[in-house]
């Protein structure tokens, strides 16, 4: 079957996902329409295609141990000068994202890997474009706000055309938790 490039992420739901994708394209990021708006749990990772059933089985287990949690985006941040990225900040749900990504990459699973940089949940809105456009993205989305209840994540594969396509969604195993629930009521995923 050969090698495939996969990623695991939390999709930013509509209408927020399309709005941020259009803004990203508007800043001149050519990759914008090939990358659904998301919070990464597993960055692009090459695996043998024959391992996809094992990856899916692992993700089913990770999702089963998870519980819905509130996600909130607010304002912008950047990884410059280390990396040419401007992002919208995850201000609620970051601890839960961190908990999930550790389990996705667990050494006992099929996609164990080290990260190039420490994990920092975010939503990229500009990557690898000129500095003036990066500055514009940072400034124009500084007041951006969105929130939703995160109820799962998805496995994506990058095609030969560079476009990321969803292979499968994984819903959390627990009951839906209202956004106002206390950290103890949220179950095993820690609060932000």
From TrEMBL:
Superkingdom of this protein's organism: Bacteria
InterPro entries recorded: 2H_phosphoesterase_YjcG-like, Cyclic_Pdiesterase
GO molecular function, one term: ligase activity
Keyword field contains Ligase: yes
Presence of the UniProt keyword Ligase in the record: yes
PANTHER family the UniProt entry points to: PHOSPHOESTERASE SAOUHSC_00951-RELATED (PTHR40037:SF1), PHOSPHOESTERASE YJCG-RELATED (PTHR40037)
Record-given protein name: 2'-5' RNA ligase family protein
């Amino acid at each position: 079957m050969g090698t495939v490039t996969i990623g695991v992420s939390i999709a930013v739901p509509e209408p927020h996902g399309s709005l941020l994708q259009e803004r990203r394209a508007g800043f001149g990021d050519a990759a914008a329409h090939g990358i659904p708006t998301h919070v990464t749990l597993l960055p692009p990772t090459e695996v043998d295609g024959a391992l996809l059933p094992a990856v899916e089985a692992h993700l089913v287990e990770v999702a089963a141990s998870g519980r819905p949690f509130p996600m909130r985006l607010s304002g912008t941040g950047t990884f410059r000068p280390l990396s040419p990225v401007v992002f919208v900040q995850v201000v609620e749900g970051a601890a839960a994202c961190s908990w999930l990504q550790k389990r996705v990459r667990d050494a006992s699973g099929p996609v164990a890997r080290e990260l190039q940089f420490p994990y920092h949940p975010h939503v990229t809105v500009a990557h690898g474009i000129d500095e003036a456009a990066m500055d514009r993205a940072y400034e124009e989305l500084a007041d951006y706000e969105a929130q939703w209840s995160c109820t799962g994540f998805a496995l994506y594969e990058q095609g030969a055309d560079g476009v990321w396509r969803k292979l499968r969604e994984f819903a959390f195993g627990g009951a839906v938790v209202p956004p106002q629930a206390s950290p103890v009521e949220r179950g095993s995923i820690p609060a932000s």
